[in-house]
Structure formats: structure tokens, C-alpha cells
Design goal:
- The longest helix has 16 residues.
- Strand 1 and strand 2 form a beta hairpin.
- The protein has 244 residues and is of the alpha/beta class.
- The protein has a single domain, classed as Purple Acid Phosphatase, chain A, domain 2.
- The chain has 4 helices and 16 strands.
- The strands form 2 sheets. Strands 8, 9, 10, 11, 12, 13, 14, 15 and 16 form a 9-stranded mixed beta sheet that branches. Strands 1-2-3-4-5-6-7 form a 7-stranded mixed beta sheet, covered by helices on one side.
- This is Calcineurin-like phosphoesterase domain-containing protein.
- It comes from Thermoproteota archaeon.
Amino acid sequence: MEILKGLATVNAYPALYLEKYNAVIVADLHIGFEAALEKDGIHIPVSMYPKMKAQLTSLLDETKAERVIFLGDVKHEFGEPSVQEWVEVKDLLGWLMERGVSVDVVRGNHDNYIIRILKKYDNVTLHDPVMFLEDIMLAHGHKSFEIPSEVRVVILAHEHPAISVKDKSGAKYKFKCFLVGKYKEVDLVVIPSFSPLAVGVSINEAPKEELLTPMLHEVDLGEFTPIVVEKDVGAFKFPPLKFL
């Protein structure tokens, strides 16, 4: 589904495809999240990384993309990379290098010390704090920043957007979604998390002041359109948030 000119969702993947650059954008993998949960006494029996890698494989196979842009929070720990993060991030980057895919990493708030891993790979470029593709500006979203006058589109992550809806029986369901709207005169897109463990924040229920992304505090969220991505239905556009 094309959400802006040259910018589209890909089936049910929590990812965007940039046609002009033959690139896919994914964010918030939070590799190593399971190890962090284990420290808090929450046991996740299997790593989510193989599932994310398989999903990314299918995404690249379907789009034939030659470039992957990670829009922040590739890893989860705020401090030094955990053993799980070292092993799985290195596997991810090595696999992408073998595929001949170039990689851009836009640094997120969880990506401290990630340069120690990235510098081992010639196909990886780190962008901190923002990345530009002509008139497209990409940032993780945890910081405020100035938008140059030539920018037409801003793409963010960080918030892990989702919406909650009820069926006729009153049962509630949460779905990951993209958010599409305006920030002043610029098109703004917020992409959902790629991690299966980070389902997200119900944007249609959360108080605006509790949102984590500074830029979202400055917009009328009611005018934003959620585009749900769900395995059984693909991408589905809902009415603006003010109607949900």
C-alpha cells in the first residue's frame, strides 16, 4: 500500500519500502530484549531473533531490496552490549553482508556502544542523530531536531505505535500500525516496531503527554491516520484517530 509518493508498506510487514532507493526501513528490533527481561525474572523460552531474521529474509526476497535502513534501537541494552546482542547483531550484519545488502543504522536511544559492533563491517554506515535521502529525513525519534526547509517527509520510529479496537462482544485487540499525518508543512510517518515482543503503545488510548516522541507532542494526533499491519489482512487503513 502506497502511503506517500514512493513510500509503501509491504504486505503485513512492519516495514516501509522506498522505491527510489530500493531500500527497506525497519526499526526497533531490540535484539537482546529477552536477556534484559530475564534479569527482571521474566523468562522468554526462545530468542525472537530467528523469527525477525526470517521475516527480514522474506521482506528482502519479496522486494529485491539492496539496502536496509535500521531506524534505531537495533539492540536493547542501554549500556554495553550483552552477549546475546553481540552474537545476534553480528550474525545479522554478517548475513546482510553475504547477501550483498548495504546497511544504514540511524542511532536510537538504545544503541549506545553499538559502534563497537558496526565498525567490523564495511557495508554498514552509522548516522547520528539523523539521516537524509534528498528530501526525506529519517530519525529514531527520541530527540527533538530542526527540520531543514528542503525536507518533504520525516520518518520516525521509537514510539512503537499500535491501536486498540474492540469487537462486538467487547473483546479488545491490539494491532501494530503506521501513523501518517502532518508536522507543520511536512509529511510525518511513524513506523511500528519490528520486534514481536514490542507490540506497542495504543496511540488511540494513551494520553498525549505520556508519549515518548517529542515531535508527537506538537501535532494534532486526531488527524493522523493509522495503517494497521496484520498477518491475516496485510495492510489496512483505518479512519483518523479522532474517530477511533
